[in-house]
User: Which sequence fits this backbone?
């Protein structure tokens, strides 16, 4: 698939009730602060809110080390992957793990204006009896345990991983994952060891490290890297980390 060199098409209202359609260089949009580029661009044609996601899978009982960096948004849903801390093969990622197409690209003709990077996970004290290779639940029943702490796992995930936004091999943004909270869901409920859960979210979900919109198109090379910053730690609960790119998807363009 050839990289698109097309311009964004926008429509600006006229006083007679009609619209003036014009083209805008995507990079001029990325130079504007968040929530201000619309003032310059008018109304984008065929724009919709969109979320693109990719997932890293970790298994209980095996150490997570500094060497186990995970690059997300580099493989699509019809491609294979591995469990990060064990290397066990995942034959096909599927929609369960990502909605990106082959080689982690956007659909042809798509321009995506990235407004927020988020990270989500869900941990429960009552771990499912059986998980598939992708971390999917295949047997929802559980074996009781008094050693799994969702709160301590959440603390380790939030403070012992760093998330890096990489574009063309250059790190554009990096911080601990606790600064990339998910806008979806509750923050958690802590009770007995087998009745508690926690997920990344809560009242501070609007915090966003991006100061300007990022324009991404087909064959733009980028990745989100999950980087362990503690020498080694071993989870007693399996978990999936899903990175979400939240923004606007534009599919109508002109040469």
Assistant:
């Amino acid at each position: 698939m050839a990289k698109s060199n097309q311009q964004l098409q926008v429509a600006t209202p006229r006083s007679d009730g009609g619209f003036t359609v014009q083209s805008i260089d995507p990079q001029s949009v990325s130079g504007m602060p968040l929530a201000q580029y619309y003032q310059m661009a008018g109304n984008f044609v065929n724009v919709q809110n969109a979320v693109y996601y990719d997932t890293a899978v970790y298994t209980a009982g095996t150490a997570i080390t500094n060497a186990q960096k995970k690059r997300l948004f580099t493989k699509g849903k019809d491609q294979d992957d591995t469990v990060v801390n064990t290397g066990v093969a995942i034959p096909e990622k599927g929609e369960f793990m990502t909605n990106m197409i082959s080689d982690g690209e956007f659909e042809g003709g798509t321009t995506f204006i990235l407004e927020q990077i988020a990270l989500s996970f869900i941990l429960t004290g009552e771990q499912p009896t059986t998980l598939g290779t992708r971390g999917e639940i295949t047997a929802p029943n559980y074996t009781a345990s008094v050693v799994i702490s969702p709160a301590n796992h959440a603390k380790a995930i939030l403070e012992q991983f760093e998330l890096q936004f990489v574009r063309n091999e250059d790190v554009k943004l990096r911080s601990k994952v606790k600064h990339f909270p998910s806008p979806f869901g509750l923050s958690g409920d802590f009770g007995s060891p087998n009745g508690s859960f926690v997920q990344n979210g809560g009242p501070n979900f609007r915090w966003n490290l991006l100061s300007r919109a990022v324009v991404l198109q087909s064959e733009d090379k980028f990745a989100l890297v999950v980087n362990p910053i503690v020498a080694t730690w071993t989870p007693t609960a399996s978990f999936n980390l899903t990175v979400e790119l939240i923004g606007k998807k534009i599919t109508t363009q002109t040469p």
Helices lie at 26-30, 37-41, 94-97, 150-160. DSSP finds four helices and 21 strands in the chain.
